[in-house]
Amino acid sequence: MALNKLGLLSLGLACLALSTQAHSQDTLVYCSEGSPEGFDPALYTSGTTFDASSRQIYNKLVEFERGSTVIAPALAESYTVSDDGLVYTFTLRSGVKFHTTDYFTPSRDLNANDVVFSFERQRLADNPYNQVSGGTWEYFNGMSMPDLIDSVEAVDDMTVKFSLTRPEAPMIANLGMDFASIVSEEYAAQLLVAGTPELLNQQPVGTGPFKFVAYQKDAVIRYQAHDDYWGGRADIDNLIFAITPDNSVGFQKLKAGECHVLGYPNPADIAEMQGDSTLEVLEQEGLNVGYLAYNTTVAPFDNVNVRKALNMAINKQAILDTVFQGSGKAAKNPIPPTIWSYNDAVVDDAYDPVKAKAMLAAEGVENLKMEIWAMPVVRPYNPNARRMAEVMQEDFSKVGVEVEIVSYEWGEYLKLSKELDRAGAVLLGWTGDNGDPDNFMAVLLGCDAVGNANRAQWCHEPFDDLIQQAKVVSDQAERTKLYEQAQVVFKEQAPWATIAHSVVYKTVRQEVQDFKIDPFGGHIFYGVSLAN
Amino acid sequence: MLNFILRRVGTFIPTFIGVSIISFLFIRLLPGDPILLMAGERGMSDERYAQLMTQFGFDQPLLTQYWSYLTGILQGDLGLSFRTKRPVWDEFFTLFPATLELSLCAIVFAVVLGIPAGIVAAVKRGKWPDQALMTTALVGYSMPIFWWALLLIIFFSGMLGWTPVSGRISLMFFFPTDTGFMLIDSYRSGQAGAFASAVEHLILPTIVLGTIPLAVIARQTRSAMLEVLSEDYVRTAKAKGLSPFRVNGLHALRNALIPVITVIGLSVGTLMAGAILTETIFSWPGIGKWMVEGISSRDYTAVQGGLLMIAVIVMVVNLLVDLLYGFINPKIRK
Questions:
Q1: What is the ipTM of this complex?
Q2: What tens digit of pLDDT does each residue of B220-248 get?
Q3: Which chain A residues have a beta carbon less than 8 Å from that of B41?
């Protein structure tokens, strides 16, 4: 009897649940994968935090067009670069309003002081905000901004001048990154006077399409459309991030109509999602590359023919089938096809174990034993490194190479794989930051990066010359030629076996209109609307 | 009684110091450097690495780091979270009410169903209700939480649509969460349907988190009852012609409850461990999920502070259980 009563109670509550689950038509709910670390994007490096902050609340001087890596004007209407490539002058858009919230009412529009403050707080140790919230400004430092920027000055109210220490063509792309979000100097000053500067990271104020309303830690983030947004008011009135770390649960919520967009659907659920008429599965190649980096300073991997032979022994199709299970595309260049300057004319090393074996014999390499390092974590560019290493182990055994698979805890893996005398080849990858080829080629293959992110320890002068030239030339057509050439040199020299670029999936409900996959992995809701 | 209380409280201090050492060392013994993890694939220069080591105090000897941690604790400062850059104390107490609310519901669920189930099983020993209840308890105890939760979500939320999939309340409700307890805050909000929504969001997580304690309590009640039911005074009570309800419910159960209360106290630790998975699956914003994120990012301050706080809570609950135990059974005080 008691159980019957409990059943009835559950039923009653379930009816209530159904009555309360429908969302208002002007509210879009995004099932996000995790909690933001904070709301000041310059303090952090994770995409989850950027989704919750810079991509909804803030703007940058320049931004990437939604769904592409093309740079477009944003808070800066225009910019000029000096002939020597050392001075960038930005003219700001006029009439840009900061958010008016319960905790801040701006007394003025955006001006040059906001831009200067946004960079100086990251750059100068004596800025009162430099140490606020334990600021390490990891992205700003990681992109070498402290070495690159000599000064940031307000020429007048609406003009800002960046002076650089060296010409750097990717500078504009860098300024489109999340760490370069423009915060309100007036709000920061007000918080400083109140003795609560850390609130800049908890109660954000920006110029972006949505203003922050509330965050219930690890549960919900609420935003409202910014009525005075310079780009025009968002179609959605309210934006809600429902934090849902488990993607299987996220799928159930999507089906139940509890959210409209699922950021990271499980590959195993894709087929079912595609068969569901209420859902739409979007896909696009990710801005990433997964690779196997040989240590080109250690014999026999210092021999280009040995590296080429090993590359020819890898059956990439088998990897795409077993590891990526259809969610990957074979990679032949160190940059993904979604980046400008991708050289499609480059011919990949064909899978030919017979020829590979003969090439190894010709180089006098017999009974080779090597290590393949398998990452202990899942990354978009490598969903299962252990399995990938096992496929390679089998491939290499066919050409007489004995492989031992090794792995370490992720932090150790990153540290040990950088060592100059490291044994064996390392499975790793990269997801682009700013859509500039320099962000792949210089960071991962440049001579400056040897002993750091250049896991192949590969310093090849003809290649390095090309990418260094491309850094200082501002004309994109000219840069394209240089990078195309660099990709040819890369393929000839084979410091890596390029493995795959992942395919990114996003699932949205049918009523979601004009959601575009962001090549940088972000989730941008300005421009998205809901059909009735 | 006072002596007994003082003795029990006296054991609290060395346990607290021991726990502070373990919580401090635990996260540091795990392989993985938080600064390198922060840099990811990009890596960082040796100079920058050294600079950050100094900034976070990781270049200090372990003993110095521990001392600074301990003095911080004594001043009520658990440090800044490495990951979120916010005070660990604030983060913990923002999330703790959610875990406490869920744990309380789970323990009430486990007690309310577990004790009667154990009594029925003991009274009907060897008969089908006993076998059915104990088999169910064994299944409940053995069930992986993750699988059990997904099964319930798929059936009740996905197929039947009776319960919400996850979260603490429907997203349409928005009100200040002053106490952090959603049942209280939703009731105080006065918004129509808010309290009901909070209740229905609690149903599945409560069942999932309460299943293992329910099984343990049912089995413990059964074995304690069986022992008591074979005592002479129970036989005498039956011989006097007392009703089965008075014999089982008053005479037997009262004495059988002592070990059951101990098990309930110990279940607090189990609930905290179970909360980690339950909260992750149900997107329940509690300390379990927060700790998992802290461990994976090697957030030293968050993990050591969180572990310490959880350990202190478990210790306090067990201290209270011990005191209650001493109150119920005066022989134990000696």
A1: 0.75
A2: 999 988 888 888 888 888 888 888 888 88
A3: 414, 428-430, 453
Backbone angles phi, psi at A133, to 5 degrees: 55, 35
Mutate to test the interface with B, among A129, A218, A373 (most CBs of B within 10 A): A218
Mean model confidence pLDDT for chain A: 91
Q: How far apart are CA B52 and CA B300, in angstroms?
A: 14
Identify all chain B residues contacting A222, using CB atoms and an 8 Å cutoff: 174
- Alpha-helical (H) ranges within A424-523 are 438-445, 461-472, 476-493
Nearest residue of chain B to residue A9 (CA atoms): B200
Q: Measured between CA atoms, how close is B264 to chain A, in angstroms?
A: 23
The tens digit of pLDDT for each residue in A73-132 reads 999 999 999 999 999 999 999 999 999 999 999 999 999 999 999 999 999 999 999 988
- Contacts with A409 from chain B: Cβ below 8 Å: 30-32
In 3D, which of B154, B316, B260, B145 has the Cα closest to residue A255?
A: B154
pLDDT score for A25: 53
The confidence score (pLDDT) of residue B333 equals: 63
Sorted by sequence, the CB contacts under 8 Å of residue A156 that are 6+ apart come out as A112
pLDDT beneath 50: ranges in chain A: 1-23
Report residue A157 as tokens. Answer: 């109210």
A218–B157 C-beta distance less than 8 A: no
Q: What is the pLDDT of residues A433-446, one digit of tens each?
A: 888 999 999 999 99
- Residue of A8, A11, A132, A217 to mutate for B, most B C-beta atoms under 10 A: A217
Contact list, A135 vs chain B (CB under 8 Å):
85
Its sign, for the CA torsion B56, B62, B66, B68, is negative
Query: Which residues in chain B have Cβ-Cβ distances shorter than 8 Å to A218?
Result: 95, 283, 285-286, 289-290
Q: Which residue of A has its CA nearest to B165?
A: A253
Beta carbons of A138 and B84 less than 8 Å apart: no
Please state, in angstroms and rounded to a whole number, the distance separating the CA atoms of residues B253 and B257.
6
pLDDT at B137 over 60: yes
What's the farthest any 2 CA atoms get from each other in chain B? 86
Averaged pLDDT for residues B97-123: 91
Q: Are B68 and B57 in contact (CB under 8 A)?
A: yes
Give the separation between CA B241 and CA A461, rounded to whole angstroms: 101
